[in-house]
């Protein structure tokens, strides 16, 4: 499972609860993209979540 290299955001786990209140396992995956990023003037490929991209924490190559 991919994790954001900037904020370390990963998958979340919990229970899905039906109408009859039976519980089953559920996983929420983060919106992580593989992006070319400028680091010290060089382009490098990283996994970055879309919230970090939108907030401007990373500069795309």
Automatic annotation (TrEMBL):
One of its GO terms (cellular component) is ribosome. Gene3D superfamilies: Ribosomal protein L28/L24. It comes from Anaerosporobacter mobilis DSM 15930. The gene is rpmB. Keywords: Ribonucleoprotein, Ribosomal protein. This is Large ribosomal subunit protein bL28. SUPFAM superfamilies: L28p-like (SSF143800). The lineage of its organism: Bacteria, Bacillati, Bacillota, Clostridia, Lachnospirales. It comes from the Bacteria. Belongs to the bacterial ribosomal protein bL28 family. InterPro entries: Bacterial_rp_bL28 (IPR050096), Ribosomal_bL28 (IPR026569), Ribosomal_bL28/bL31-like_sf (IPR034704), Ribosomal_bL28_bact-type (IPR001383), Ribosomal_bL28_sf (IPR037147). GO terms for molecular function: structural constituent of ribosome. GO terms for biological process: translation.
